[in-house]
Write a structure and sequence with these properties.
With 248 residues, this protein is an alpha/beta fold. Helix content is 40%, strand content 17%. The longest helix has 24 residues.
């Protein structure tokens, strides 16, 4: 276990250094960016080791798997658990009850279910709206690949803003998977412009967060304005092939 903690700590600190360098390159304060260590499909001991290595935000893709880890490791002071993957409607209660932030709110229907369950739990669930800027059918989120259709997103966003038990904190996006970090830059830029456009139209909202960037391209994401980056394999190592997806 000590070797695992040491290995993860080294990679975690390297990621923080990369984030700080990218932030300064864009004249940003590195403290504006938070690192989410993705532990989806990793065994419990990897999540435990990540916490011991210094990680304070852990990201999960599957609600039931995440809740099992939360219940096993939930007494760790100062640790947040984020849901970063697609949430099926029937799993909404698990997310509303157990997670500190949902990165991947991808429909009005899901928002309404989460609002109901969060209300029953007497809490407000912070959420990020997921936008699909690459137009890929395999990716979730509202289709924002065509700038001319951005105004059509306003009714759903406005309705979600009025829900009392979910609170929009910003946006999340996953660009098409490329072979080079620079392949993602134009998509990150597009997400940032989308945020500016909708924030102008809906000035009463809280648009502080941009969740974008993974192991391949998180430094570029920071240069383009990310406040949350989701880094899995570059810190925690390879995951089980059985449940591997690119959404980390």
């Amino acid at each position: 276990m000590n070797l695992l903690v040491s290995s993860i700590r080294e990679k975690y600190l390297h990621a923080l250094d990369q984030i700080a360098t990218a932030a300064r390159k864009s004249n940003r304060d590195p403290n504006e960016v938070r690192l989410v260590v993705v532990t989806k499909s990793q065994p419990l001991e990897v999540a435990q080791a990540a916490i011991e290595a210094g990680a304070r935000i852990l990201g999960e893709n599957y609600p039931e798997e995440g809740v099992t880890k939360i219940q096993s490791l939930g007494n760790q002071t100062g640790v947040e658990w984020h849901m970063i993957g697609h949430v099926q409607s029937r799993k909404a209660r698990l997310v509303a009850d157990h997670f500190a932030l949902l990165h991947s709110l991808d429909s009005l229907n899901l928002a309404q279910r989460l609002n109901r369950f969060a209300g029953e739990a007497n809490r407000i669930l912070p959420i990020l709206l997921e936008f699909n800027v690459g137009g890929e059918e395999s990716k979730g989120g509202w289709d924002a690949s065509d700038e001319s259709t951005w105004d059509s997103l306003l009714p759903d966003v406005s309705t979600i803003l009025d829900l009392p038990h979910v609170q929009i904190r910003g946006w999340m996006s996953m660009p098409p998977l490329g072979n080079d970090a620079e392949d993602s830059r134009r998509f990150f830029y597009q997400v940032r412009r989308l945020r500016e456009r909708l924030a102008d139209q809906l000035p009463g909202g809280d648009w502080r967060e941009l969740s974008m960037g993974t192991s391949l391209d998180y430094a570029v994401a920071v240069e383009e304005g990310a406040t949350l980056v989701r880094v899995g394999t570059a810190i925690a190592g390879e995951r089980s092939k059985r449940r591997h997806t690119p959404e980390e």
